[in-house]
Design brief:
Elements (H helix, E strand, L loop, with lengths): L2 H12 L9 H10 L4 H17 L19 E3 L2 E3 L12 E3 L2 E3 L9 H4 L13 H16 L18 H4 L7 H17 L4 H15 L70 E3 L6 H10 L2
Parallel strand pairs: 1-5
Antiparallel strand pairs: 1-2, 3-4
Length: 299
Amino acid sequence: MRFSTLAMAAAAASGVVAQEDTSLCGKYTTALLMNNTAENQYMLLQLLVNRVVTGATQEQVSNGSAVPGILAPGNVNGTDVNLLPYFDGSLASTNRNGEAVSVNFLADGGATPLTASPPKPANSTDSPQYYLLTHLYSFFGALLQCQVGSDGFPAYEGNPSMAKVHMFMALTNAENTYFIQQVGAAAVSFGVTMDDVSTVAEALVSTFNYRCSPAAKIVGDMEELQSICQAEDCPLSPNANCDAYPNSGAVSSPTPTPSGSAAMTPTGGSSPTNTGAASTLTYSAGAGVAGLIAAIFAL
C-alpha cells in the first residue's frame, strides 16, 4: 500500500481540505497553524512527533485525552511493552553500517527540548537525539504528504529502508502495535479525526507491521524493504517476499517493564520523564485496524 495514494484519497474524501492541498499535512497545518506553509508543516510534524515520544497529560491536550508516549511502558492485549531500551542505549540494537551498536538517542536534553516552546529536537544540532528526531519529522512528513524538501521543511536524509534501520531490534507485534497506538493517540490529541487516524494507522500497519511485506517507496526514488516486524508473532504479509529479508541476527527483545512502572533514566543524559500515564491497549486482534482505532479513541 502506498502512503501517497492512501493519504491523498482520504484527505480528498473528507471534503474539508483546501483546494490547492489535499494532503493530511496541509489539512491539519491549516486547522492548527492557520497558514499552510512548508515551515508551518514542519512545525506541525515537530509538535506531533515530539508528543509521540514524550506523551502528554490530560491538561496538556485540547480534548482531555492523555498520551502516554513511546518511552512510557504499556501493555498490548496482556503483553507488557517497554520500548525505552531501544532509545536509551541499553541495547546494541542500532544499525550502523551493518553492525549492531548501542546508541543513546536521549542524551542531548531528553524530553526538555521536545516539550519546549517552540519545540526542538535536541539541545544541539550534532547528536544522535537531533538526528533521530529530525529524521522522524521528515519521514513522517513524507508519509503525510508534507512539502518535504521545500524551503522550511528539510528533506529526509536517513536510510530509506526501515527494514534495514530496524534490522537488529527484533521488534514484536505487540511492540510495533504499541508504537502505532502512540502515533494515533498523539494525532487524536491534536484533533485529528477518526477517519484520518484510521488512514495513517492502516498505512503504518500494512507497510511496517506485516512480516515479509514487499518493497515500497516512501522516501527517495527507489522501492525499499520497509517491514520492521519480522518476529514470528508478526502477521505474514498477503504478498510476502521473505527471501528479500536477510537474516538480521537481531538482538533479543528487552525484558518489558510492567505497565505502570517508572520509565528508565538514559545513561549520560536527562531523564525523558513522560508526561503521560502508562497505557493498556486491549482490543480484539480479529477487529484489525478498526479495532485498534477504536481502542485509541477510548484512551
